[in-house]
Amino acid sequence: MLLVARASAVTSRTAASNSLNALVLTAPDPLRDRLRHHAATAQACVLALRATARRVLALSAEIEERERELAMMVKQWAPQLLAHTGVGVVVAAQLLVSWSHRGRVRSEAAFAMLAGVAPLPASSGTVVRSRLNQTGDQALNRALHLAVLSRIAHDNKTKADVARRLAEGTTKPEIRRCIKRHLARRLYRAMQALPDQT
Asked: What is the pTM of this model?
């Protein structure tokens, strides 16, 4: 429920931020010049900007509160997930929600399929390759994607692996798919090793 509440607040904050930017950026110069001479219209514009900015700030505070609550729960139930590079509180919470409990997902391969990171054959002619799986739990897939992007940006071992694969001619999407699959395998094992919460 906390993840759903946080996701709703993030979506609303993004919409409010976009509205604020649109109010500021889309007014043409002649209109802005006219507004300077009409105090009532200018005041209405300022009020709209102020109200939208307050909404963005309120939603940001709500998101921070949900993330604090998620952090307490994750640290209580599965602190070992946070030790994996790229896995923060929100990613760990989504992993736990999707995995649910030991026995729900029968194997690493089943977890990869659930996450939409199981490789699917996409060979053509003499080219043998795999492609991303578009099925499964999209929230889990998004969480793994965020973890992979973080690993690519901050983990030296992952950076070296990406450089090696690029030199071999592997495409960036294929590299991300491989890293996602590897990470899903490691995280599945970590969750399977958690103490039984029932």
From this structure: 0.74
